Amino acid sequence: MARRQLLLTLVLAASLLGCALCQTASEEVEVEGVVTDTPPREQRQNAEKFEFQAEVSRLMDILINSLYSNKDIFLRELISNAADALDKLRFLSLSDRSLLGEGEQAKLEVKISLDSDKKVLKIRDRGIGMTKQELVSNLGTIAKSGTSAFLESMQKGGDINLIGQFGVGFYSVFLVADYVEVITKNNDDKQYIWESDAGGNFAISEDPNGEQLGRGTQINIHLKEETQEYAEEAKLKELVTRYSEFIDFPIYLYVSKEVEVDAPEEEADEAAADEDVSDAEDVTDEEEEEEGDEEEGKEASKVKETLWDWELLNDAKPIWLRSPSDVSEEEYSKFYHAISK
């Protein structure tokens, strides 16, 4: 009788453990080094509203309504912008090492992660970041010479793929997004959130969650219904690898991997408990001893577990950091075509 009660207790414990594991699996994965919890829009009561400069609005309209099939370019432009921000900080730190900070903050890198449930792609760099005034001027209100030049090019049938050459590559994000947040922290200012749904205006607010970034910029890209292919890990890995080939800063993608691990003792006992509970009263002391000997010889049960970690996608050195004799003709050709786009 005592054995039966013990087995029933084990079954109940295993059931409760299973529920706990399911609950944990459904929770959002916390991503180290990335802001995962941005305040809801309605909580940003201190947001200042701005109108996009007229030519920027025209540019946005073209991108939002574009039938251009190669929307992949948005990732190329955002990775390029992140590398530029890192370059600026690296240059300034040559004369003032303190600008880099300490520990993790001093690492000049780009991290890309994905919230598959919410269809939000996040690109975070540890570059120079932007002040509030730079957000206002760089992302909307100040006309850039490149904006007019790009619009003129498009009117003449130009290729949207060349958007980066006109200095307005950031806006290519609206090829795939219906809402964008830019969270940024410059050493000389507080942390701010720029946001827009490309409706002709944008808003900037001080981040009520404080300065989680430390320094740098994170872009949260809320994907359109028709562009959710970019919420697939395999697609991202292929694109990031392609567009980071000539970037001399490490670029990481947050990926999941399934591994086999030893099952927890309670979980391993669950199957045996289910089998034994029906005839537990009929088990003799002698049979119990035999079962004990059998258990000692069994291998530990295995279960699959999902682990998350950062995977480096551009571990090859850029060709300008390698000996000319180690660079093939094909690599020279690929580099030429990449920088001449």
TrEMBL record:
Name by which UniProt lists this protein: Histidine kinase/HSP90-like ATPase domain-containing protein
Signal sequence interval, chain numbering: 1-22
Similarity section: Belongs to the heat shock protein 90 family.
Pfam families given in the database record: HATPase_c, HSP90
Molecular function GO terms recorded: ATP binding; ATP hydrolysis activity; ATP-dependent protein folding chaperone; unfolded protein binding
Regions that span the bilayer: none
Keyword DNA damage: no
Region ranges (Disordered): 263-303
CDD domains: HATPase_Hsp90-like (cd16927)
Superkingdom, taxonomy of origin: Eukaryota
Domain Histidine kinase/HSP90-like ATPase: residue ranges: 70-227
Acidic residues composition bias: residue spans: 263-297
